[in-house]
């Protein structure tokens, strides 16, 4: 019996040997669905091994702050850029990343604290676990924004983008609007709610079957293609916004920046010089705009809320996340909080650390006296 790796290799060979055209698209989709299934099994097995024997420790995401991952080839200027973006505020402990060569820093902008992670240069085949690639990718997968850092003299990103894609990271895309519900009987039923132009109902059926489903209803509400159907089946894709920094413009010739921007026109890009600090504010603004931030007004107990300087947090953050942003010890001393605003059932509702805050909430956190 062939190992999972061998089976995957066999299928990949078959795909490589299949001419790609309209007629073979369905067949390739089916093969890819089989690979996705095997990859899922492999991943499960790895996790069992890790959980069982002295796990290497996983990347722990720091709650509260929004996180930006700097991703780019070696020597494009990521470390220099991190220093520019975070300035004097970059002195944060590396202890959250004990298993990683990831350097974190904090960028402060518009009252927001945004964590920036400098990844070691992403290399070819990182998605297959080469080098420290797996860990870098794990960190990138948990980021809110990926900042693609490009050297203006070396703007070809195809290898890197392919690595990200193979690592189940989808940039500037949304999850396809497709729902799979499994059942005990009835076979595979595909129900498109609109005309499909890039994939047929039969291909979807074949792919769902190849992935191992026997009875399932698939509701398709979007004009998806084969790759998107695969994303739905695999289920492990993360959808992350991407922004691009085109670096070293201090050395560029006239027109060069525009040419690189045109080459990468699907991304919002800012030409910068990490060496001189040129255009850092524009880049910070672009990053800020891409993160869905909300304002929280803090009210010290027995006093008026500070309506001038809100705390800026990520949408979806909890009271606990807010505590952590204020001060590391706040969470330990937490007793309860009172909240006014959109997230409160009534003004001054008492809530715990799990309560999710909303834009323009007023929050009063009650801590134990020391
Ligand atoms: N002219 C110019 N040089 C730059 C700029 N940014 C970075 N450099 C230089 O490019 C080289 C690489 O910069 P780093 O910041 O170390 O690059 P990195 O991407 O962190 O590299 P790795 O750590 O290998 O991934 C250094 O010699 C920098 O001084 C820039 O905007 N303009």
UniProtKB/TrEMBL annotation:
Keywords tagged on the record: Coiled coil, GTP-binding, Nucleotide-binding
Domain OBG-type G, first and last residues per copy: 66-292
Pfam families assigned to the protein according to its UniProt record, in alphabetical order: MMR_HSR1, MMR_HSR1_Xtn, TGS
InterPro entries tied to this protein: Beta-grasp_dom_sf, DRG, G_OBG, GTP-bd, GTP-binding_2, P-loop_NTPase, Small_GTP-bd, TGS
Domain of life: Archaea
Stretches assigned to coiled coil: 1-28
Recorded GO MF terms: GTP binding; GTPase activity
Domain TGS span(s) in chain numbering: 292-367
UniProt keyword Nucleotide-binding, yes or no: yes
CDD domains: DRG (cd01896), TGS_DRG (cd01666)
Database matches in NCBIfam families: small_GTP
This protein's name: GTP-binding protein RBG1/RBG2
Species in which this protein is naturally found: Methanomethylophilus alvi (strain Mx1201)
